[in-house]
Amino acid sequence: MPGQETFYSIDTSALINWWVEDYSPDVLPGLLPLMKSLIDRGRLRAVRSVKDEIAPGELRNWCTAQADFFVDEDEAIQRRVVKLMASYQNPKKPRGISKADPFVIALADVADGEWTVVSAERGGSITNNPNIPTVCADIGVPHVRFFEMLRIEHWQLS
């Protein structure tokens, strides 16, 4: 629907990609107020499991300073995670969604409105290596990388 805003469930990998690797605030400080605005408007969220994966330091400090950025993994999210893990994680194999991944996907899947998962992951195989993008595709939840989110938001940094 034209004009409809996108909501985002962001993974640890996308946050690290933004802050540490490709779009560091010391080089692109204009991203800080844009990201904060998304959070303040309720359009960008991370599950508590993401917080647990972020190493202590500037990124973690910034994220925890944003009111309402981290959401609790409520009963609906946990029920969805159980189903995702049963379908996309084989305990006998080292591959598949794990740690915060199923929670990030579940938040987008159970939330009201149009939610998109944001991660730095690519590729994968639903049978050999189900990761965030392949699981999202399989269950019909949109997935983008961080840079694609910038495009969706029509952000232009000079």
DSSP summary: helix tally: 8
Structural class: alpha/beta
Question: Can you tell me the CATH class?
Answer: Alpha Beta
- How many distinct domains? 1
Q: Order of helices and strands, N to C?
A: EHHEHHEHHEHEH
**In percent, how much strand structure appears in the residues?**
5-15%
How do the strands line up in the largest sheet? 3-2-1-4-5
Q: Kindly, what is the distance between the CA atoms of the first and last residues, rounded to a whole number of angstroms?
A: 30 Å
Overall description:
It is a single chain. By secondary structure, this protein is an alpha/beta fold. The chain has one domain: 5'-nuclease (Rossmann fold), CATH 3.40.50.1010. Helix content is 47%, strand content 10%. It is built from 8 helices and 5 strands. The chain has helices spanning 12-22, 31-40, 48-53, 58-65, 75-88, 101-110, 132-139, 146-152, and strands at 7-10, 44-47, 70-71, 115-118, 143-144. A 5-stranded parallel beta sheet has the order 3-2-1-4-5. Strand 4 (115-118), helix 7 and strand 5 (143-144) form a beta-alpha-beta unit. Helix 5 packs across helix 6 (101-110). The longest helix has 14 residues, at 75-88. The chain starts with 6 loop residues before the first strand and ends in a 6-residue tail after the last helix.
